[in-house]
Each structure stands twice: as C-alpha cells, then as structure tokens.
C-alpha cells in the first residue's frame, strides 16, 4: 500500500445529489471503511474546491484532469495528450499540470493520467463490435471482421500520435518530478487509446520507477479482453513490477465500474499479479448501493486482492 493508506474510494461514487456538500461524501466514505479518497476527473470545480476546504479527507491521488472544467470549448477530460494539433495538446498538458499541482498541494502521492488517443473518437469498427456485443452477438464472421479491422487500423494510425504522447509525458514527468508527485499511466477502455502493454513499457522505461509507472484499471482490461483486443493478463504480466496502483471495479458484459462482487471478473490473476505495494483504489460508479460499496472491501479481501 502507499504511506499507510489501506483503502481509497474514488469520487466517481460521489456524483449523487446527496453529496452536494462533498464533506458528506468524505464522512460516508470513512464510515464505509475507506481511509482515503481519489479525486475523479469527473469532479467539477465547486465540489473539488469544497473537498480541499476542511473536509478532513486524506487524498491518495488525483485523476487528471481534475477538476473537470471547460477548456478550448469542451470538457478538459476530452482534450488529447496525443493530439497532432499543438494547441489542443499543449492545453491538455496544462490541464494535467494543474492536477499535478493540486496533488502536490494536498500531499497526494499520485496523479493518474490518460495519455491520449488516435484522434478524438472511437474507431467505427470497435463501436460496431460493441453494439453487437451488447445485442448478444459476440462471435461469428461479422464480429471477427470488425475485430480484425480495429486491430489493423490502430496499428496503421498509431505512430504519429504515439510520438506526441511520448512528448507530452516527458513534459509532465519533468513537472511531476519538481513537485514530488508520481504519474500513473492508466490502461484505457477503448482500443484507440494509449497505451497498450508494450507501449506502456516503452513509455515508462526511461523514467525512475517512483516517478512514472503503470496504473492498472481492472474493468478496462476486462472489457478489452472480452472484445478480443488484449489478453487481460498481459498488462500485469508485462508491467507488474512497474505498477504503482490500480482501479478496482467489476464488470457486467462490457459495462464496468460496478462494485466488486456485482459482476463476473475473475480476480485470481489480479491477486497474483498486483504488487503488494500498489495502491488499491475502488473506482465505483454512483449507481452502486452503500452496502455494495462497503461490501467491496471484504469481497476483495477474501480473494486476496486487498490486505
């Protein structure tokens, strides 16, 4: 674990009317067994400021770009750190640096980073495959053709975007080093996004392990595996020794962010591959019940995922 933190809960769960005052969220999170919180990139500026104003919260990390606000006429979470257009990429860097600054100010050890994507939207072939999956068609010639198209198009289009992502990371790492914060590169939900396991290894390889590492999102890995893109075990097999933390949530179909126990993730490979030192953050959506949020801790304790 990290600096005595045992269980951290993301403010993703705080997107409920009853938590209009984020001090209430902190109190409820503590009552359910969580001793720290991670600030989600969905957290708007007003609740973010309230969290920092005497809430009594201990912060494990900030998920960039938090707080959520408008930049270049859209939400800052839509900005692309791998964009070929310099204005968007530089704005994305600036928004992420704001999160790094906030993390340093509240003594949060980590900033979780989405390192960008090939363009600004999901590949059409992946979108079509996801719709087929949700409709119950998960195998067959059409699915295989769409999967093959997705894999080929990403491989063809990735190189220039990947180089921009690498450049953005270098600038962010320099800022994080100066502020004493570590960056965790998160595996993503959609296949056009960076990084894949080998890309992550290439990106973090030139940095100290305590400055830039990998952040494993269980649900994202599970969804990509269910669509046939990346073996879910490949992430921790490749990056386990460089894993700084994780987002723990369950999956139903290809819908993620369920409370652990409210889906069908097989947790054995997580228990085996996740280093004991990696921070455990429960990233559960706002539709999950209090009892399920509390029950997630003993559920994963029984499976050896958390201490």
Describe it for me?
The chain has 307 residues and is an alpha/beta fold. The protein has one domain (8-302): TIM Barrel, CATH 3.20.20. It is built from 10 helices and 12 strands. It has helices spanning 22-31, 45-51, 86-105, 124-134, 141-179, 197-204, 218-226, 234-239, 268-273, 290-302; strands at residues 8-10, 36-39, 59-63, 70-71, 74-75, 110-113, 182-186, 212-217, 243-248, 250-252, 255-258, 279-282. The strands form 3 sheets. The protein has an 8-stranded parallel β-barrel with strand order 1-2-3-6-7-8-9-12, surrounded by 5 helices. It has a two-stranded antiparallel sheet with strand order 4-5. A two-stranded antiparallel ribbon has the order 10-11. A hairpin with a 2-residue loop joins strand 10 and strand 11. The longest helix has 39 residues, at 141-179. The radius of gyration is 18 Å and the shape is globular. It starts with 7 loop residues before the first strand and ends in a 5-residue tail after the last helix. 47% of the residues are buried. The model has no long low-confidence stretch (mean pLDDT 96).
SSE map:
Elements: E1 8-10, H1 22-31, E2 36-39, H2 45-51, E3 59-63, E4 70-71, E5 74-75, H3 86-105, E6 110-113, H4 124-134, H5 141-179, E7 182-186, H6 197-204, E8 212-217, H7 218-226, H8 234-239, E9 243-248, E10 250-252, E11 255-258, H9 268-273, E12 279-282, H10 290-302
Parallel strand pairs: 1-2, 1-12, 2-3, 3-6, 6-7, 7-8, 8-9, 9-12
Antiparallel strand pairs: 4-5, 10-11
Helix pairs in contact: 3-5, 4-5
